[in-house]
Design brief:
- With 260 residues, this protein is mainly α.
- Helices cover 70% and strands 0% of the residues.
- Helix 5 packs across helix 6 and helix 6 packs antiparallel against helix 9.
- The protein is elongated.
Length: 260
Amino acid sequence: MHEAAVQPKPRAENNHSPWLLGMFVRPRETIGHIAAHANGVWWLPLLVLCLTALFSVAASGWLRQIAAQTGQVELPPDFQYYPPEQQERFMQAVEATSGPAFVYVLPGMARLITVFAGWLLVGNLLHLVLTMLGGRNNTTSTLNLVAWAGLPFALRDLVRTAAMLITRELIQSPGLSGFAPLEASKLNAYLFYLLGLVDIYLVLHILYLGLGARTIGGLSARKAWGGVVITMLVLIGLQALIGYGLAQLSTIQVVRPFMF
C-alpha cells in the first residue's frame, strides 16, 4: 500500500503577527488585508498597546520612587510660606502616595482603561462620521482599523520608556507642549495639554486612519480624509480638556487641603 501524501497545512488565518511590522513598512497593503476581514481582528494590536503602556508606567513609576527616596519632590507654589504643620502634612501625603499602589497599580490601570476607552471612542465616532458622509463601513471594520492604526502609539511608548531609562528623567513636556506659552493662565494651561498630544506618532496614526477610511468606507479621498480630520480634532480637543480638568482637580485635592 502506498502511504498517502502528507499535504502541507495552510497557514492559520488568525495569525496576524506579520501585520505588526507591515503597518510600518507596508501600511497600504496591510490596511487592505485588515479591511478584508469581516470579523474582529483587533486583539493583537490592543495587546501590544497595553503591554507598551505598562512598560511606560513601570519606567515612570521607578523614577518617581527614586525621586521620592532622594527627596526630589515637586513642591507647590509658596511652599516655604506654609506653616510648619502644613508642610509636614504635605510631605506625609507625598510619602503616602509614593508606594507601589500609587506609582504602579493605579497608573497602570488608568493606562489600560485609556487604551480600551480610547479605541472604542475613536472607533465609534469615526464610524458615525464616515457613515454620515455616505460611507459603507460597518462598526467591526472601523474598530479593526482604529486598533491597528494605533500601533504608532505603542512605538511612542517604547521610545519614551527607553528615553526615561537612559536619561533617568521623567518626560515633562511631551509632544509640542514645549511651545505652549509660559504665561500662567487657563488658556495657556489648556494649550499645554493640547500641544502635548501632537507629535509624529499622532500624524502617523491619522495617516493610517485616512488610508483605511477610503478602503473600508468606499468614500472619495476628500470625504475620507475630512471624516478622519473632523474625528481627530474633536477627540484631541476633548482629551486635552480632560487632561486639563484632571490637573486642576489634582491641584485642588492634593495641594489645597494643606492650606487649611
